[in-house]
Structures are given as C-alpha cells and as structure tokens.
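Researcher: We plan to redesign the surface later, but first we want a full-length starting point. Tokens attached.
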C-alpha cells in the first residue's frame, strides 16, 4: 500500500482535508464476504451493541441513513499502514465501498463496535420489546398511491419527512425497496393500516415483528 503524506487526498470524493487531531480510517478489504453469526446484519450488530438504534452514516459531513455496518481499520498516515484491529461503524451505501482507496474521516462521536458477539447480540435475544417498540404484522404490499408520488415508498418518505432507506423492523437494518401496509397488534395503537418500509425478508413473514416506534 502506498504511503500517504499530509497533502494526499482524503475522503471518497477526495475533498476531505487533513486533520492532525484525528486518525483517518479505511474500509477493510474482503469484509463483505463475512456474515454476522449473532445478529440479523452487521448494522443490526452495531445497533444492538451501541447506544443508538437510528443510525446515520458517520462519514464526516454525511447525514444520510446508514444501510451497512461497515468494517474499517484505522490508518497510520506517517507509516502508510493500517492498524490490525477491525471495527464496525454505520455507513451509507456510497461511503461503504472498499474500492475507494483514499483514507477518510468519521465523526468523532461515532461509537466503535467490535465484531465479536457480545451480551446484547442474538437473532432471538433482541433488545426490542413491547416497552420500547410497536408490534406489527405485515398485511400486503402497498398499492401505488393516488398522489404524485412514484410509489408507496416515496409516499412514506414524503409524509414521514424522512429519507430512510432501511427496513423498519428492528434490529434488521437491511435496505427496504418497498413500503408495505402493516397492522399493529399493540394495544397502544388503533387498528388502522399503516405504511412502513420493510425489506423483502420480513415482508414475507407471517409472524408479528417489532418495528421502531
């Protein structure tokens, strides 16, 4: 790997500036083939073990919704080498790309999570429960809206004032390409049908699921 000096380009688009008070990071090569063995996804693993369940991309200057739990390593500029330990952080699809070779900076407030299974992990032992999330059942795929929105997912985003790109079932975190009509089985809500972005895996489930409140 070539050595980067302090005048080199930083960031995916080459527009980040050198910062002498912070370590840059690099996407870990080859981590995309590894699957999380304890949670539904790497993003869910980060959510389960961090203090946040509504992840935003932590690439410095980005505010898009995170759709990946990305593996990164810290980069030592002066010696042109990566530190051996790998960490998980939430990134959007644009910034989780190992083909970008420039080191980049992440938010100083980002919580770093280790890949190893921890106490809060597990597909069955989720931190979700009836006290902090709603329980729903997916009814069917939402029809095309009668307004100017292109599809139900855009209709959801416009009315929710959100650019959300991930499944609302917690702690999934996978991309949601459709919006579905869901019905609450929770006594705290009425019996109307509601729109929610749901991934294809959870859309086919017949069982009740927890959804972010």
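Model: Full-length starting sequence:
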């Amino acid at each position: 790997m070539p050595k980067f000096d302090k005048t080199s380009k930083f960031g995916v688009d080459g527009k980040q500036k050198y910062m002498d008070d912070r370590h840059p990071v690099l996407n870990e090569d080859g981590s995309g083939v590894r699957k999380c063995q304890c949670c539904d996804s790497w993003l869910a693993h980060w959510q389960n073990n961090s203090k946040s369940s509504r992840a935003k991309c932590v690439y410095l200057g980005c505010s898009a919704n995170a759709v990946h739990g990305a593996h990164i390593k810290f980069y030592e500029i002066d010696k042109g080498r990566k530190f051996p330990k790998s960490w998980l952080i939430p990134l959007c699809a644009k910034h989780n790309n190992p083909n970008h070779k420039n080191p980049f900076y992440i938010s100083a407030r980002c919580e770093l999570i280790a890949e190893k299974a921890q106490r809060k992990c597990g597909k069955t032992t989720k931190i979700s429960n009836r006290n902090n999330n709603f329980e729903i059942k997916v009814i069917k795929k939402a029809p095309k809206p009668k307004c100017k929105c292109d599809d139900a997912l855009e209709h959801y985003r416009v009315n929710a004032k959100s650019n959300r790109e991930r499944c609302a079932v917690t702690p999934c975190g996978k991309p949601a390409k459709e919006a579905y009509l869901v019905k609450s089985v929770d006594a705290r809500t009425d019996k109307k049908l509601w729109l929610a972005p749901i991934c294809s895996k959870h859309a086919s489930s017949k069982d009740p699921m927890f959804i972010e409140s």
